[in-house]
Write a structure and sequence with these properties.
single chain; alpha/beta; Nucleotidyltransferase, domain 5
Length: 197
């Protein structure tokens, strides 16, 4: 082969990492058998990236799955546990959820870290995570981010972080109080929550 100028082509092999599988196995998906019948039973969270003047900012959100109301949001320059903990703590201050609450997210390291996991444990919150490569397991958050980007982000250039924050604040008020959801007979999340109370 060398004399003929030929080189062998090799296939890239998948090497399993048993330690990684064990790490994620400790975070079960508690939503498989659960259905929220009222507020503060299941909260879902996720992070998305938004562009500001050519730089990324990260939006972390917590939603009550029952009524789809956004409970808290935080915008940061770094996608890390500080951001996810800040938005979760803001939701806790607003709702003071009882032990037994399920908090569901994807498998991002921001949610899987010991700091975040320990915070949930102290409050008696059960941590739930999606399966790997299954974004449908967190469909409510994916749907919200789709709406946010379709309604606000696509086709818009944000020149400053302050401008983005102002627009997010307006949009999230609109989403909670005015945006109609077909799943709730065309009521807003806040209206649905009040009528269900």
């Amino acid at each position: 082969m060398r004399e003929g100028g030929l080189r062998a082509r090799t296939a890239r092999l998948y090497r399993a990492n048993p330690g990684l599988h064990r790490f994620f196995a400790q975070h079960r998906n508690h939503l498989w058998g659960a259905r929220a019948t009222g507020v503060n039973q299941i909260w879902v969270g996720a992070i998305t990236s938004l562009s500001v003047a050519g730089q990324w900012r990260y939006l972390a959100v917590v939603m009550d799955q029952y009524c789809r109301r956004i409970l808290a949001w935080c915008l940061g320059a770094t996608r890390d546990t500080c951001l996810t903990r800040a938005v979760f703590d803001a939701a806790i201050r607003r709702r003071r959820a009882h032990p037994g609450l399920i908090f569901h997210s994807d498998r991002g390291s921001e949610y899987a870290s010991a700091t975040f996991r320990d915070r949930l444990a102290v409050l008696g919150v059960r941590q739930s995570m999606t399966r790997g490569g299954a974004p449908g397991d967190n469909a409510h958050m994916e749907s919200f981010f789709h709406s946010l980007k379709a309604d606000l982000v696509h086709g818009t250039r944000f020149l400053t972080e302050a401008e983005l924050r102002t627009q997010l604040r307006r949009y999230l008020w609109y989403y909670n109080y005015q945006r109609l959801h077909s799943a709730w007979a065309y009521r807003s999340p806040v209206d649905y929550e009040r009528r269900a109370a």
